[in-house]
Amino acid sequence: MTEIESIRETALSEIERVKDLSGIQEIKAKYLGKKGSITQALKKIKDLPPQERKEFGKKVNEVKKQIEEALKAKEEEVKREKLKENLKREWEDLTLPAFRPIGSLHPITLTLRRILNIFTSKGFSIKEGPEVELEDYNFDRLNIPPDHPARDMQDTFYIKKEGYLLRTHTSPVQIRTMLSEEPPIQMVAPGKVYRRDDDPTHSPMFHQVEGLVVSENASFPEMRYVIESFLMEFFEEELPVRFRTSYFPFTEPSAEVDIGCMICGQKGCRVCKNTGWLEVMGCGMVHPAVLENCNIDSDIFQGYAFGMGVERLAMLYYGIDNIKTFYENDLRFLRQF
Ligand code: PHE
Predict the structure, then answer these.
(1) Pocket test for ligand 1, best of 148, 151, 207, 210 (most atoms within 8 A of CB)
(2) Which residues of the chain have pLDDT under 70?
């Protein structure tokens, strides 16, 4: 009986200390296996004097049951721990990209990327700004006084918060850049802009890319070279380009850039309204007042700027005649890109 008692004690303390499934198997074999000490003890029952058999048998079976239960409990505990550890190690990263991408890039995204690639290859950096913008950055500092027609409610989406609006162009990003960086500056600002406009060639939200260069020797000829070479690369064609005098409050002199209509080869068609020319962007030498509004000395530095509509360039490049097709997300349209 004392032997059985000490078997119980060692077995239970071994079970308590064991840490893995193979250890549990070893203990199981050691006590309950064919040659295990409990099994051996059970075999001994028949050799005992009859009056001792009952009590001894009861004791051995009790200890056997206790060891079995302790082993079972331990096994479950070890399995639970192992699962916890595995879960820590084998988690799934649901943010990883799908192996095979489904869908495709939107034509506006494709066009934006092509435009930005051309400018970054020319040394321009990309700057972004907020779509809810300060009126001061969208208008005042760009030399657009409060009574200027561009301020009219017709063109601008104002928001309730005094002094803020939905930016009508990405020029405020240029203000932000000039306020925070020292010249030389060579940047492009892509992004969404908002105007109260809605017809087959205008949408209340559209995309612009504007460029700005400020340096000691920025010049109109340099700007012409940058714009002309951009247009050749973008349209993958040697197109005729002309600079037509125009007016913007923030540039002086200002120009609008036309390209020869590639749809009719300048013979005159519906798209170019029989003029043979298509307007693709505005540009000019940054008005000295704008430089001064951004604490840049206009006696030392000069700048040029240009701005284009991404939808317009995409429509001309792909031959699309209604701007709305970009926003309807009709798969039959989108699948063509
Ligand atoms: N900001 C002008 C617009 O939105 C475009 C432009 C940019 C014109 C820079 C000249 C110089 O129409």
Answers:
(1) 210
(2) 101, 150, 153-154
CA distance 189 to 174: 7
Domain count, the chain: 2
Position 161 scores a pLDDT of 94
CA pair distance 210, 127, nearest whole angstrom: 10
Which of 30, 58, 90 marks a domain boundary? 90
Strand duo 251-260 + 241-248: pairing: antiparallel
Q: How many separate helices (H) and strands (E) can be counted in the chain?
A: 12, 9
Say if CB 108 and CB 311 are below 8 A apart: yes
Instruction: State the pLDDT at residue 289.
Output: 97
pLDDT of residue 238: 92
**Ligand 1 atom 6: residue of nearest CA:** 307
Count the Cβ atoms, other than its own, within 10 Å of residue 5. 10
- Nearest atom in ligand 1 to 212's CA: 9
Contacts of 256 (CB under 8 A, 6+ apart): 243, 244, 246, 279, 281, 282, 283
Q: 119 has which bridge partners?
A: none
CA of 282 to the centre of ligand 1 (A): 5
Is-above-0.90 flag for pTM?
no
Q: What is the distance in A from the centroid of ligand 1 to the CA of 121? A: 22
Residues 169 and 265 occupy one common structural domain: yes
Answer yes or no: is 99 within a domain: no
